[in-house]
Design goal:
With 618 residues, the chain is mainly alpha-helical. Helices cover 70% and strands 2% of the residues. Strands 1-2 form a two-stranded antiparallel sheet. The chain has a two-stranded antiparallel ribbon with strand order 3-4.
């Protein structure tokens, strides 16, 4: 690992940067993805306002992401991670529609809460002496929020459909990988070999993988389906993280599969979201029933989407098959080592791991099924409205400009090349990234096209075909139209998170705040009525000073028309300004000389003091 630079005087802890094979690969991927989306953006955004705002935050987010991937300390990662979260928020809220602003608020809430929790973990890590699971768990929470790991995945299905398609490609393709980047540091550098941590990562991965696949299967919105697919693919990556962590230096296959599937997913979603963007910028619709048949005679769009679909579906001779094969082999290797007794303290038995293997294969089959659904709906089936289909067919050569064509073609060409020549391409990438993950180089190259390896992929293809025919065609379609069968009430955000954050927690906070406020004021009253009982003393000084008395006199005259002669005798212990404050808040049961009133006056005093001090700086 070669150091780049350190800026010791920034943010107290300083900023440190470094580079290695893994980081270099992702910097190159980031540059490529930003370049492709930049080619497409002018045509996609030509009917939008505030385009300059998009490009400003487009650039800032790029530099923040580069800062994340080149960071050599978690503190540096955190700084750029938070910058990236706030600048990418603008993408989600870009068109300022009601649904966009709601999705953006969800995205920002998850990012802010995740960032605060991560910061708490970093404080514990810096101070030392704390439980490693608590510390790393808090940091993991922040990274998992950005990666879209269950149950923090809620922003992906909401944000991606409303963001501009080029931004969706970046949000799904690479911003989620910044979260995975942090999780790799935690798992492969700080917790490597820890069975408990690895098991937790594996469980999160399995749930995320399966849930995302099911959500994508039920979705009838083009971009939402791709967003849910991202959740599922992040789950596949997390499975590799879990297996690699538990096997430690014996988990090279799983680690390599983890990294390669990260790379693949980044490029897949660049290709697929830009293709979806072409559909949207022509129709301004995403519902499968409305966009049905749009791509029937559009050869380039069809080939590009098919390349991305075949890749993410892990079809042999495409790059996704290589990374999924390595992940599957990692699971089988773990099962074998557990059976042989080489994994000490294993928490999951062979039976459970075989069940996880089947969920892995089934989730891969679901991936095939929902990608078949999207391809058939957009590129094969005809629209039910013949006039609409005729309008779609007319847009044979004018549906996208030359720059967009170049961006789509370049984003899709790599998948078959890397899939056909994995030894010359993907294995080399894995070798470069291995030191970052503490993975040993393989002594022998993997025979990806041996039948034992092909078998898992072929099983997923068969399952996908069955799911498409039996579930999608028969259960999710009615009278030739796609039907949304997902229960609307099954939404974690609306059912749990929003009520918890907007109703339950504020109510609890108000309840305890009132108790604390009443407790202090009540204590003061009790003390004044007992031990320090109030009584008039002939020589008692009058409260306040000339200024506050003048204010009280003025308020009495303005609001009540009282003069000095009309008011109570001057020997009353109650100050005039406090008496007026009390009368204005009779319904709130505020007593004279209360702590609240004292705090108000103290705050005013501090404010005047601050203004006075600032005057010296002017």
């Amino acid at each position: 690992m070669n150091g780049l630079m350190s800026l010791n005087s920034i943010c107290g802890e300083g900023l440190s940067f470094t580079i290695d094979g893994f980081r270099a690969i992702y910097v190159i991927i980031a540059i490529f993805m930003w370049a492709m989306t930049l080619l497409m953006s002018p045509e996609y955004l030509k009917h939008y306002k505030n385009k300059s705002r998009y490009y400003i935050f487009f650039a800032i987010t790029f530099f923040a992401l580069i800062g994340v991937f080149l960071s050599s300390t978690l503190f540096t990662t955190f700084i750029f991670f938070e910058i990236m979260s706030f600048t990418s928020y603008v993408w989600v809220a870009f068109d300022e529609r009601k649904e966009s602003l709601r999705a953006a608020s969800t995205y920002l809430a998850v990012a802010v809460i995740g960032g605060l929790v991560m910061l708490m973990g970093l404080f514990l890590l810096t101070n030392g002496g704390y439980n490693k699971y608590l510390t790393c768990g808090l940091i993991f929470f922040g990274f998992a929020a950005k990666a879209g790991v269950y149950p923090l995945h809620i922003w992906l299905p909401k944000a991606h459909p409303v963001a501009p398609a080029p931004a969706s490609a970046l949000l799904s393709g690479i911003l989620t990988k910044s979260g995975i980047y942090g999780i790799l540091i935690l798992s492969f550098q700080m917790m490597l070999g820890d069975i408990n941590w690895g098991t937790a990562m594996l469980i999160f991965g399995v749930i995320t993988m399966f849930l995302g696949a099911v959500l994508a299967l039920f979705s009838i919105d083009l971009k939402r389906t791709l967003a849910c697919s991202s959740v599922s693919q992040i789950g596949f990556i997390m499975v590799g993280v879990g297996i690699g962590t538990m096997l430690a230096h014996h988990g090279a296959i799983a680690m390599r599969g983890t990294m390669l599937h990260m790379v693949n997913h980044s490029l897949f979603k660049l290709c697929l979201f830009m293709a979806a963007g072409v559909v949207f910028m022509n129709l301004h619709k995403l519902d499968l029933n409305e966009i049905r048949g749009f791509g029937r005679n559009k050869t380039l769009l069809k080939v590009v989407f098919a390349s991305g679909a075949l890749g993410i579906g892990c079809i042999p001779l495409f790059s996704g098959y290589v990374s999924k094969t390595l992940l599957h082999e990692g699971i089988l290797e773990y099962i074998e080592l557990v059976e042989e007794g080489h994994v000490e303290g294993a928490l999951l038995g062979v039976g459970v791991m075989k069940g996880i293997e089947w969920l892995f294969i089934f989730s891969g089959g679901c991936t095939v099924a929902y990608m078949i659904k999207l391809f058939m709906a957009v590129f094969v089936e005809k629209n039910k409205d013949a006039k609409v289909q005729a309008e779609y067919d007319e847009k044979k050569s004018t549906y996208m400009g030359p720059k967009t064509r170049i961006a789509l073609a370049l984003s899709a060409v790599a998948f078959p090349v890397m899939g056909i020549l994995p030894g010359m391409t993907m294995d080399k990438l894995a070798d470069l990234g291995s030191p970052f993950m503490n993975a040993e180089l393989l002594e022998h190259s993997v025979d990806y096209f041996a039948f034992s390896n092909l078998k898992g992929g072929l099983m997923s293809i068969a399952i996908g075909a069955l799911v498409y025919i039996c579930i999608i065609k028969n259960f999710m379609m009615k009278d030739g139209e796609y039907v949304d069968r997902w229960p609307s009430k099954v939404d974690i955000e609306n059912a749990i998170y929003r009520p918890l954050l907007l109703k339950v927690l504020p109510a609890v906070g108000i309840f305890f705040a009132r108790i604390c406020d009443s407790l202090v004021d009540g204590t003061v009253v009790i003390l004044r009525k007992t031990l320090y009982s109030d009584r008039r003393i002939p020589r008692e000084y009058v409260e306040g000073n000339a200024v506050t008395h003048a204010i009280g006199d003025r308020l009495d005259k303005i609001h009540y028309g009282l003069t000095k002669e009309d008011r109570e005798p001057s020997h009353s212990y109650e100050h005039r300004l406090a008496r007026w404050y009390k009368s204005m808040n009779e319904n709130q049961n505020i007593i004279s000389r209360s702590l609240s009133f004292g705090l108000v006056l103290a705050s005013m005093g501090l404010l005047f003091t601050l203004v006075y001090l600032l005057s010296f700086l002017v």
